[in-house]
Amino acid sequence: MTWAPGFTDIGAHEFGGSSNDTTPPAIVSVTPGAVASGGTIYGDTLTEIAITFSEPLNLIDALATGSYELVEAGLNEAFGDLDDVVVPVSVAWLPGLNRVLLDLGDPLAGGNYRFTIFGNGGMHDLSGLSLDGDDDTFAGGNYERFFTVQPIVPPTFSGDTSGSGTEDGVPVTGTLAATDVFNTPVDDFS
C-alpha cells in the first residue's frame, strides 16, 4: 500500500474486536458475594469490590469511574432523593483476568447501599457490544444490586454496675447470671 502525500496513519482508532462476535459481555461474578446476592456485610470490612467479566472489555470503559456507581441511601434510608451519598471509587483493571477492582478507600459505614454498573451507554467489549448488565442475554441493561452494611455493636450492660455491693444503702449479695445475645455471628474464640 502506498500513501499519498499528506496522509498518515496514526493508528488511534483501530478495531480490536471480532466482527463475528455477537455475544455481549456479561458479569460472571461480583465479590464479596453479599453485594451480588443483596445480602448483609457485617462490620467495617468492605473496602473493595471485584467484578469479573465474561470477556475483555474496552479498557477506557472499564477504567471509567462513571461506569460504576455506589450510593448509600442516607438518613431516610430511601434511594433517589437529596440525602443519598455517592461513594467515590477508584478503578483498576486486572489484565488477563477480565476483572475490575473498585477501591472504596475507607471501609463502608453501616447503611443501605445500591451498586450499579452501567451497561446502557457505559461498558463495551472489544467488538463494541454493550454490557449485558441485566443478564437477559441482550446487550444493554444496567447491573443493579442492593446490599446492607451492618456495624458490629459491642455488647453493653444495663443496671447498677457501680460495684459497691449496695442498693439504696442495703448490702446486696448473690449470684449474677447473664446471657449474651448477639445480632451477628461470633467467630474464633481462640
Overview of this protein structure:
Helix content is 5%, strand content 26%. By secondary structure, the chain is mainly beta. It has a domain at 27-150: Immunoglobulin-like, CATH 2.60.40.1220. The strands form three sheets. A five-stranded mixed sheet has the order 2-9-8-4-5. Strands 1-3-7-6 form a four-stranded antiparallel sheet. It is elongated and about 90 Å long. It starts with 26 loop residues before the first strand and ends in a 19-residue tail after the last strand. The model has no long low-confidence stretch (mean pLDDT 84).
Question: What secondary-structure arrangement, pairings included, does this model have?
Answer:
Layout: E1 27-31, H1 33-37, E2 40-42, E3 48-53, H2 59-63, E4 68-72, E5 85-86, E6 90-94, E7 99-103, E8 111-117, E9 143-150, E10 166-167, E11 170-171
Parallel strand pairs: 2-9
Antiparallel strand pairs: 1-3, 3-7, 4-5, 4-8, 6-7, 8-9, 10-11
User: Which stretches of 5+ consecutive residues score pLDDT under 50?
Assistant: none
Number of continuous helical runs = 2
Span of the ends, CA to CA:
73 Å
Largest sheet report: 5 strands, mixed
Number of E strands = 11
User: What fold name stands as the CATH topology of the domain at 27-150?
Assistant: Immunoglobulin-like
Structural class: mainly beta
Shape: elongated
Mean pLDDT, to the nearest integer, reads 84
Name of the CATH first level of the domain at 27-150: Mainly Beta
Q: Helical residue percent?
A: under 10%
Instruction: Bin the strand percentage.
Output: 25-35%
Order of helices and strands: EHEEHEEEEEEEE
- What spatial order of strands do you see in the largest sheet? 2-9-8-4-5
CATH architecture of the domain at 27-150: Sandwich
Q: Rg to the nearest angstrom?
A: 26 Å
